[in-house]
Automatic annotation (TrEMBL):
Residues 105-203 form the Endonuclease/exonuclease/phosphatase domain. This is Endonuclease/exonuclease/phosphatase domain-containing protein. One of its GO terms (molecular function) is catalytic activity. It holds the Pfam family Exo_endo_phos. The chain crosses the membrane at residues 55-76. Keywords: Membrane, Transmembrane, Transmembrane helix. The keyword Thylakoid does not apply. The keyword Transmembrane applies. SUPFAM superfamilies: DNase I-like. It comes from Advenella kashmirensis (strain DSM 17095 / LMG 22695 / WT001). The lineage of its organism: Bacteria, Pseudomonadati, Pseudomonadota, Betaproteobacteria, Burkholderiales.
Amino acid sequence: MSFLYVLILVVPALATALAFMPSSHWTIRSLDFPRVQIAVLCLASLGLTVLNPPAASGLVIFLLAANLIALIYQLYKIFPYTRLAKTEVLSNHAPDDDRTVSLLSSNVLTPNRRSDALIALVRQYKPDLLLTLESDAWWQNALAGLEEDYPYRVAIPLDNLYGMHLYSRLPLENTEVLYRVEEDIPSIRSQVILRSGEKSGFTACIPRRPAQPKAKHQSLGMQNCCW
């Protein structure tokens, strides 16, 4: 039994097992995402065993069983996102009306300076609400050209990768900037007044990154302001 074969058996089973650890570190939590890739590796290891059966041993039987269990578990997790699963949210094909709201959300990535690409998307789709995440003072200035079309705004420019800006064509009411995740991680809670006159609740938040050290709270000049 070659080392490569053992490695092919160990990797997908180990990746599946590690994801069960109650750790928030990114090295562990990142294993929650490549489920399709892990399932393919499980299938590959099982297929390789069928095509070229190794000598039976306790280790091989254990690893094959672990891969089979890992495959079943990964398929169970993947299934809800396939066409075979029951639709949970029905599509709405009704025409836009006074009770319809469009939203464009963009994680701009603070060091990114391609504001022109985001502005082009906004000009193309003309959303009622635009929410930017990781936006700092630079991004606030770069998107100033949108202010004429979006007279209602909430600005929280931070340089700790948790900045947030909300731009709205529709009036906002009872707007609050909250810090309930961490003292340096904001959330926005507001009511959007629809064209019909009805009010719709709106909440925007960004979770803390896994195992990220706490950033020193920034007290910026334009923090916590609603325009």
